[in-house]
Amino acid sequence: MIKILPKVFLFSYLLIGLIPEINALDRMNYQFVFLSSISIFHCIYNLFVYKVSKIKLGVIPLLFLCLIFISFLSISNSLNLPESLIDLSKLLTLVLVLINVIVTIQNDSKIQSFIFACITLSLLVEVSSIFLTFIDNYNLSVVDKAGRSFIYRGITGNLNIAGFSIAMKLPFLLYYCLRANSYLRKIAISLLITLSIFCISLTGSRGALLSIYISIILFSSYFAYKSYTTKSYAKFFNSLFIIIPFITVFIINELIFNTLKISYRTVEIFQRGSSSRIAYWKDAFESIIENPFLGVGIGQWKIFAVKYGAENMWDYTFIYHAHNDFIQMIAELGVFGIIYLVIPVVIIISIFKRIINRTNLEFEIILLISITVFCIDSSLNFPVFRPVVSATYFVLLAILSSHIKLNTTNLKFINSYRVLLILCLAGLYPQYKLLISGIEQRNLLGDYNAKIFDDPIELIESYNDKFPSILQTGLPIKAMKGIYFFYAKDTTRAIEILKKPNLNDNPFVGAYEASLAQIYDAKGELDSAYKYSAIAYEKLPNNLYHAGYYIRTLQKMKKYND
Predict the structure, then answer these.
(1) Cα–Cα distances in Å, from 497 out to 269, 278, 282, 485?
(2) Among 51, 272, 490, 500, which residue's CB has the most CB atoms within a 10 Å radius?
C-alpha cells in the first residue's frame, strides 16, 4: 500500500481538475487547498520513506527557493497583508510540488512513465468533456452557427484555460504516437490528436491557437533538423503526426463554422491583437519603474492595478492580473522577480543544446513544446495561479530538472525541504480562509447582482471581512456588507460600516465613498452626498457609478459649472 502512495500523489496533482466543485466563488480556491494538502502529505512521505539527505538541489529548484525568499522580502511593501500571504502560500505549494516530484523521480526512475500516462489521461478527460458538449449542442454549433460559447469550457471552468490546458498536454499524444510500434496504434493516436485540436478550436482561444502553430513549427523543425544531420530524411515524415490532424481540423472548421473557423481566429490574432492586454502591461511597467527593487509586494497587483489603470475602469470589473505572469512577478517582487522568467529560459536553452548535440531526443522535444505552450499562456494570461495547468507545469519542470543535470549546490537539501514543509503547513491557513470567504463572497455577489437582499442581517454581519478583506474581484468585502445593510433598510448600520473601512482594503477604488454618496443622496443630505461622491469620482473618474452620482449631486445642488 505504501509503495502506491507516490502514484496517488502524482495522480492527484495531474488530475486536479476532476475535484468536485463546491459552492465557492472561484473553483481555483478549493483546488489550491486540495493541492496544498496533497503536497504536504507527499513531502512527509518522502521524508520518512526516502533518503533525501543524499539529494542535492539543482539550479531550477534553487532559483524557486530564491523566488520564495524574495517574495517574503516583498511583503514589507504590501498594502494588504492577507493578499500577500494568500499568493505566497500558493507559490509555496507549487514549489513543494516541484521538489516532491524531483525526490520521487530520483528514487523511482520508472515513475516517469506513470506521469506521462496521467498527463495523457488528464488530456483525454478534458477533450471528452468538451467534445461531448459539442455533440449535445450540435444544432447550436453547426446549424445555428453559434460563435464562441462558454459551454465549451470543459472541466476547467474557463475557455482560455481549457484551450491552453489541452495545447500544453497535446505533445504527450505525439510522444505516444512516435513510440507506437504498429500502424493501427499510430492511426488511433492520430485521431485523438485530431480530436484534441478540434476541441481547442471550439474554445475559440486565440492564444491556444497560436500555441498550436508554435507547436507545429517546433515539432516539424526538430525532425527537419534531425533528418538533415542524420541524412535519414524519412524522419521528417514524423512531423505529419501533427500537421495532418491540424489540416483535417482546419478543413472541417471551414465547412461547418462561422466565427469559430480557424482562419477567422487566426486573422484575429494579428488584426485584433489585444489592445487591452497591452494597456495592462503598460500599467505594470509603470509600476516597475516606480517600485524597481521590492515591487509592490506579492499578491498586491489586484490592488495596484486599480491605481495604474483607473482611467480604463468604467465599472467594478477590475483587472486583478496583469495578463502576463512574467511582468506581474517583476511588478510585485521588483527586479529580482525576473527569476521567474529566467527559469524557463534556462531550461529551453539547455534542451536546445542537447537537441543539437545528440541524435534521438523525442522525449526532450515533447517537454520543450509543453513548456513553450505554458510560457505563451504566461505571456497572455495568468496560469501560475490556475492549478489545472500550473500543477502540470511544475511536474514537468521536476522531470526536466531530474534529467537535465544542471549545476548543483552544496546547500543541505533536507534542511531546505523541512523548512519548506513547515511554511506550507502554515500556508494552509490563508488558503482555507480564502476558501471559506469564497463561499460567503459568492452569496454576497449573487444577492447584489440579483438585487435580492433577504438574508438575515446577523448572517451578513458574521461574514469575515478582515482575512481576506477584499473580494476576489477586487472590491472591499466590508463595503459590500455596507451596501447589503442599506438595501436591507438598515441605513444607520450601513453608514456606520462604510465610515469605518478596514485599513488598506483597496484605497484606490473609492467603493466606500461611492456607497456613502448613494446613501446620502437617498436620504436627501446633499452636502454629504457631494463630499463623498467627489472623493469617489476623483479616485475612479471614468467609473459610471462614481461619475453618475457625482453629476447627479452637482445637478441637485445646481453646481452647473462644475
Answers:
(1) 47, 38, 36, 9
(2) 490
Q: Tell me, what's the pLDDT at 56?
A: 74
Give the Cα separation of 484 and 491 in Å (integer).
Answer: 10
Across residues 549-557, what is the average pLDDT?
A: 91
Tell me the per-residue pLDDT of 425-457, one tens digit each, with 9 for 90 and over: 999 999 999 999 988 888 888 888 888 888 888
CB-based contacts of 58, cutoff 8 Å, min separation 6: 102, 401, 405, 406, 407, 408
User: Could you tell me where the beta strands, DSSP code E, fall in 376-520?
Assistant: 408-412
| Rounded-to-integer distance, Cα 157 and Cα 389, Å | 13
pTM: 0.94
Helix, strand or coil, per DSSP, at residue 148: coil
Phi-psi region of 538 (alpha: psi -120 to 50; beta: other; left: phi over 0): alpha
Grid coordinates belonging to 414: 533536507
Do the Cβ atoms of 315 and 544 come closer than 8 Å?
Answer: yes
359: confidence class by pLDDT, cuts 50, 70, 90: low
Residues near 137 by beta carbon (within 8 Å), at least 6 away in sequence: 146, 149, 151
